[in-house]
Design goal:
The complex is a heterodimer of chains A (492) and B (624). Chain A is of the alpha/beta class. Among the domains of chain A are: 250-336, no CATH class; 408-492. Chain A has 21 helices and 11 strands. Chain B folds into 3 domains: 40-261, P-loop containing nucleotide triphosphate hydrolases (Rossmann fold, 3-Layer(aba) Sandwich); 283-427 and 438-444 and 518-600, no CATH class; 453-510, no CATH class. The chains are: A alpha/beta (492), B alpha/beta (624).
Chain lengths: 492, 624
């Protein structure tokens, strides 16, 4: 799969040679070349207060992004890996400035000094967190914000008009599906994918714990709502998956402290009716004492970290089979939906990282060359075209997007199979073929061969409509690669 | 309420003695208004803010279905009813469609417990049953004085075309509750909706729901308060509530918990500010009606009495009465100031409204044309049509709000000119834009610009055929056959060129066609909406005119009655005189009692400051 990446890198070199005397274009080409080597960039986007920063903390596993009750994130902030923490402010004009790394209760504080938020292009946080090694996360201000320039900044960053988006993929958070959510996803697909028409967004039904008013079955409700959205044709065409997530719970689970565990254990020991009385409302929980060891401030802090739902769930778990802090953390993380999201991000983004990056770079170079025609640019465009048609991964992505928007005349069952084979649920061999993880290389080979023959038959069937046959040809090619890979592995 | 009815009935008896059908008709209308006081409070907000649960908690009954997913799909009215009952307003089965395409509606009784089958998103998604509304009657003390609470379907993004429907329902409401939950501060669409709505509804209150779930609700409340103050809604109350706590408190009979739920404050607001104010307004208007009736009656009685008591002053009295009558008559004339200003104002308003509508739509049209020029409209036509409809809807709602305001202002101007302080204005509203856009058809479909394969071949052939023929003939000169490698090659080249040119031409054609569609659509909207708004404004004009003419007519009638009564008195014989004087005194006594009673209905302080300027007072002024 790295073939495309290499081809794009070569293309970049060639383009650099052609535009050697144009410093502006060269600089932009250079950034695309750098992008090919860097970790994948995933942006967290969504309406105001959808819980973007909270989810970011949960993914990183550390409470570093500032969160607040009011609208909080006003500047596009990058979180990327580095051995030592550092915060750099990139203003719209002028040189980047280093900011002091200051944390209050663990969270970073960005002290902009005399610079106003509107004058900042981005903040870059270098942080030594393991998760960031292979993934650069971008926190964006909410769209539909009260100050329209804040949301415009977000939109301009994620869906620029004349270049590919700075983010390779996006995790889109929404509390309920609004028209503006669809507009955004559509715009992101249009600009980021450019002409290659692919889907590279995951939708997250965030704050899932609040869906059922914090009842203990809230996440089940949220799950069924996510199912409905998943089936919604307008969303299906725009996002690969819809996952319900209780962001606050996820963040807390990743950073659970021993004293919190103790406080919860004490609460779980309280008589059931009394406990339910305490948990009737947030105010009551803070006001009414349940144990002399847990003071009012501790209760308020607990509530802030877990939310009513989190406390209810934790109590239920502690009364069940969970008896240690680490078990509790694991169980909370599992139930919060974070694990599922991480898995999906792995399957859909990380395993595809090379091709997603290559595609962004390719689109970028193409746009640049087209807008700056000169001697030799025709040759570059031909190479671009060649990569477009030759890169099987890109064709897979394109087909996936076509399937999602239901423009391929295939029966639903067939379409689902095609989707899985071309990597709609993940690009690992086993996932594509629908096999267990433990399948032997021979099993894989046999399954791949069976698929190959079947799809070849469908492709060559004269009754198959032309567009469907084109889709099938992509599947056949995929199957061929699968067989080849299986053979290599069987020999090894 | 009962004492008001009794007073009006008493007044009706008094009027029946004199021959004044005009006065008794007005009093009968007053009685009707008293019998059916309707104070409508509409609950609006984005979806999933807890609107339905708020109503359930308010009346403590599960009347509006609640779900974790979107729940309400049909507006539901909750009002007083004993015993509890439920109705839906649905299209009559097998009924015909009216002139404007609207189906015939009927009110159908349904079992109360089945209400969810009709109004919930689950059972009736997107309101496929086509219900206009549902009504629930409950025996609750809170609803007894005419309060009705309306649950509206949530709006996804308060700026969508859907929001226009909500907006148009507002002019008929007495108050609006904007529900937003405590999870976050107001968003831009919410605040914009609030700004627009507060120009249409007299009373707006904001409710911060789900305070039980969010520990930081106080911070959110503070932020919201700030947004309200900044946005020019400083007077709008913000009431934090928790429906769950209230429902739980009702179940366990826990008053302390009920207090904590914040509902007592909401109930107090509804009772005092909304129902209380409406009732006060009701009392005031009844009082005004009674006082003016008393004035009218008294004038004739007193004129006759004074003619009887001192016949020598008769000529003076008649002269004065004639003079007042002359002045009052001026108000009946077409040339009177208020009539002219009403007519002029209304034609100004209509032309302004048309200009405003055209101006807004023209801007949209320009934007649309720019968008069409920038890309192939065939590919994005669906989204484009959605966008266009939404923009048009929001432009129409802006014009609507603006026209409504101007119409009210005009009516007040006219009232001022009529110089009748305290005359209760008739219901001067352009009424909803419900169905304003209904006769305008949806944006027509556009050729998607997708050419089927045979089509492509055909277009290519058209070009290549010429190429093959031309080069075939040319090369034929040097002795090659008509179809040879050279001519086929040329054919291919030309075919490709023809296909490309044709593609461009088709794009141009599609763009032209799209622009035409937009133009036609906007013309349609201007025509239909303009016509409807004009009709509505004419209605306002007619109602205003009738209202004030009626009053002018009453004055005329009272004054001419007085004149004839005074003349009659001068010619009556001496022996009957004593008898008649006693009768008149008794009747005047009745009127005085009525007046005193009516005075007590008015708020204490401004009563002496603003005495109703009835004809009697005018006569008094002339005398002085």
């Amino acid at each position: 799969m790295s073939g495309t990446g290499e081809a794009v890198a070569t293309l970049g070199q060639d383009a650099l040679a052609v535009y050697a005397d144009d410093p502006q274009v060269s600089a932009e080409l250079e950034t695309y070349a750098v992008r090919l080597r860097e970790p994948l960039r995933v942006a967290l986007a969504g309406m105001v207060k959808a819980g973007k920063s909270t989810l970011l903390n949960a993914i990183i596993g550390e409470e570093i992004a500032p969160t607040d009750t009011g609208e909080c994130t006003r500047i596009v902030t990058w979180y990327r890996w580095a051995a030592t923490p550092r915060i750099t402010l990139h203003p719209l004009e002028g040189e980047p400035v280093l900011l002091p790394v200051r944390r209050v209760d663990g969270r970073l504080q960005f002290e902009l000094g005399s610079v106003r938020a509107e004058e900042v292009r981005r903040l870059v946080v270098d942080w030594p967190a393991e998760r960031l090694r292979h993934l650069t996360l971008i926190d964006t201000p909410g769209i539909a914000s009260l100050s329209s320039d804040v949301s415009e900044r977000s939109l301009a960053f994620l869906t620029p008009e004349d270049a590919p988006s700075e983010a390779d993929a996006v995790v889109y958070l929404m509390r309920h599906l609004h028209a503006s959510d669809l507009d955004f996803l559509e715009a992101f697909r249009d600009t980021s994918a450019g002409t290659s028409g692919t889907v590279n967004a995951l939708a997250v039904l965030s704050r899932a714990d609040e869906v059922g008013a914090g009842r203990i079955d809230s996440l089940i409700s949220a799950g069924s709502i996510a199912d409905r959205y998943r089936a919604d044709p307008s969303l299906r065409a725009l996002a690969l998956e819809v996952v319900p997530i209780a962001g606050l719970l996820a963040q807390t689970a990743r950073t659970l402290r021993q004293e919190e565990y103790h406080a919860l254990a004490l609460l779980a020991a309280v008589d059931r009716t009394a406990r339910e009385g305490l948990l009737l409302s947030a105010d009551r929980f803070v006001r009414i004492e349940f144990s002399p060891d847990v003071g009012q401030e501790a209760r308020a802090a607990l509530l802030e970290r877990f939310g009513l739902f989190g406390i209810r769930l934790a109590c239920a778990l502690l009364q069940g089979s969970v008896h240690t802090a680490s078990d509790l953390a694991r169980e909370l993380a599992r139930r919060s939906g974070l694990d599922q999201l991480l898995l999906l991000m792995g399957q859909q983004f990380q395993e595809r990282a090379a091709q997603l990056r290559a595609r962004t770079a390719l689109t970028g170079v193409e746009a640049l060359v087209r807008s700056h025609p000169r001697d030799g640019s025709t040759g570059l465009l031909t190479s671009v075209e060649k990569i477009h048609t030759g890169a099987h991964e890109i064709r897979e992505l394109r087909l996936l997007s076509a399937l999602r928007s239901r423009t391929v005349p295939l029966a639903p069952a067939q379409a689902a199979e095609v989707e899985r084979l071309i990597g709609g649920s993940g690009v690992a061999q086993g996932v594509r073929l629908g096999l267990d993880d433990g399948a032997s290389p021979d099993d894989v080979r046999a399954a791949a061969l069976a698929h190959l023959y079947r799809w070849r038959g469908i492709t060559e069937n004269p009754l198959t409509p032309r567009t469907a046959a084109e889709a099938c040809a992509v599947v056949v090619r995929t199957c061929e690669e699968l067989v080849q890979e299986a053979q290599v592995r069987a020999h090894a | 309420m009962g004492e008001l009815v009794a007073m009006v009935e008493k007044a009706l008896e008094l009027v029946a003695v004199g021959d004044r059908p005009d006065l008794s008709q007005r009093l009968r209308q007053t009685l009707e208004r008293l019998a059916d006081p309707d104070v409508r409070v509409i609950v609006v907000g984005e979806f999933k803010q807890g609107k339905s649960k708020l109503i359930n908690a308010l009346v403590n009954a599960p009347v509006c279905p609640v779900d974790d997913d979107i729940a309400t799909s049909v507006p539901t009215v909750v009002r007083f009813g004993d015993p509890a009952s439920a109705f839906v307003v649905a299209p009559r089965e097998g009924g015909t469609r009216g002139e404007d395409g609207a189906p015939e509606l009927e009110r159908r009784r349904i079992p109360l417990e089945e209400i969810a089958r009709y109004v919930s998103e689950k059972e009736n998604p997107g309101n496929v049953q086509g219900l206009a509304s549902a009504e629930v009657g409950l025996p609750r003390k809170m609803l007894a004085n005419g309060l009705s609470v309306i649950d509206s379907p949530g709006v996804g993004g308060l700026d969508s075309a859907h929001a226009l429907t909500t907006l148009t329902a507002l002019p008929t409401a007495d108050a609006m509750l904007l529900v937003s939950d405590a999870s976050q501060e107001y968003t831009e669409p919410e605040l914009r909706f609030l700004r627009q709505a507060s120009r249409i509804v007299p009373n707006v209150a904001c409710v911060l729901s789900k305070t039980d779930l969010y520990p930081q609700w106080r911070t959110v409340a503070g932020l919201d308060r700030g947004h309200l103050d900044q946005g020019g809604n400083a007077g709008t109350p913000l009431i934090p509530v928790s429906s769950d706590l209230r429902l739980y408190a009702a179940k366990t009979n826990d008053t302390e918990l009920n207090e904590e739920s914040g509902f007592p404050e909401l109930v107090r607001y509804l009772r005092q500010e909304i129902v209380g104010k409406a009732a006060a307004l009701q009392r005031r208007s009844v009082a005004q009606d009674l006082l003016s009736t008393a004035d009218h009656l008294e004038l004739a009685l007193k004129s006759e009495l004074s003619a009887l008591e001192n016949p020598e002053g008769l000529q003076n009295l008649l002269a004065e009465l004639e003079e007042t009558k002359e002045r009052a008559d001026q108000q009946r004339r077409k040339s009177s100031r208020w009539q002219t200003s009403l007519n002029d104002g209304m034609s100004d308003l209509i032309s302004d409204m048309e200009h405003d509508l055209r101006d807004r739509l023209r801007k949209i049209q320009r934007e649309a044309e720019a968008a069409i020029d920038s890309a192939d409209p065939g590919e994005t036509w669906d989204q484009f049509a959605d966008w266009l409809e939404q923009r048009v809807a929001s432009a129409v709602s802006d014009t609507f709000v603006w026209t409504n305001e101007r119409a009210q202002w005009l009516a007040e101007e006219v009232a001022g000119l009529f110089s009748k302080d305290g005359v209760p204005l008739p219901l001067l509203q352009v009424s909803g834009t419900d169905g304003v856009l209904a006769p305008v058809e949806e944006v027509a479909d556009l050729d998607r610009g997708k050419v089927s394969l045979p089509g492509k071949v055909l277009i290519g052939m058209r070009g290549s055929y010429g190429g093959v023929l031309m080069f075939g003939l040319l090369t034929g000169i040097i002795g090659m056959s008509l179809i040879n490698p050279l001519s086929v090659g040329a054919g291919l080249l030309l075919g490709r060129k023809a296909y490309k040119e044709d593609k461009e031409a088709r794009l141009k054609r599609r763009q032209g066609e799209a622009k035409n569609l937009v133009r036609r659509q906007i013309d349609d909207v201007v025509f239909q909406v303009g016509k409807q708004l004009k009709d509505r404004l004419r209605l306002v004009q007619r109602e205003t005119r009738d209202h004030f003419s009626e009053i002018a007519e009453e004055h005329h009638r009272s004054l001419s009655d007085s004149v004839s009564a005074a003349q009659r008195a001068s010619s009556s014989r001496a022996q009957g005189r004593g008898q008649r004087i006693r009768e008149l005194r008794a009747q005047i006594g009745g009127v005085v009692v009525l007046r005193r009673a009516a005075r007590t209905l008015l708020p204490a302080s401004p009563a002496p400051a603003a005495p109703p300027a009835g004809p009697a007072a005018e006569v008094a002024a002339v005398r002085a």
